[in-house]
UniProtKB/TrEMBL annotation:
Tree of life domain: Bacteria
Record Pfam families: RNA_pol_Rpb6 (PF01192)
Organism: Halpernia frigidisoli
Molecular function as annotated in GO: DNA binding; DNA-directed RNA polymerase activity
Protein name: RNA polymerase Rpb6
GO cellular component: DNA-directed RNA polymerase complex
Keywords: DNA-directed RNA polymerase, Transcription
GO biological process: DNA-templated transcription
Length: 107
């Protein structure tokens, strides 16, 4: 599933703590896993956005031309409307779409 097609919440939602910690037994461990996934999602979105904005980049533009570039403004507005990376990570966690593994310290 694409990040853009995610059905993650766009606003603040209260989640059931028991559902979140059920897979690993610790709310803190679940938060760390979701946080790392949110960082990955954020990096993907940022790279995609910069790639699209670079298509319109003019390196010798005047200040007026920069503010008048409607394509860049529309692309930026589209990305602002997407769900936040944290919301996407929580949704993936609750839908069992995140792969994680524990490493044992006893080796």
């Amino acid at each position: 599933m694409s990040i853009k097609d995610s059905k993650a919440e766009l606003s603040t939602v209260t989640y059931d703590k028991d559902k979140i910690e059920k897979k690993v037994g610790s709310i803190y461990e679940a938060i760390v896993i979701m946080g790392k996934r949110a960082e990955q999602v954020n990096a993907e979105i940022r790279a995609e956005l910069h790639g699209k904005l670079d298509e319109f980049a003019v390196h010798n533009a005047t200040l007026e031309e920069v503010f008048e570039n409607r394509e860049q403004i529309e692309i930026s507005k589209h990305y602002e409307k997407l769900a936040k990376p944290t919301s996407i990570a929580i949704k993936e966690w609750l839908d069992d779409e995140i792969y994680f593994r524990k490493t044992d310290d006893k080796q």
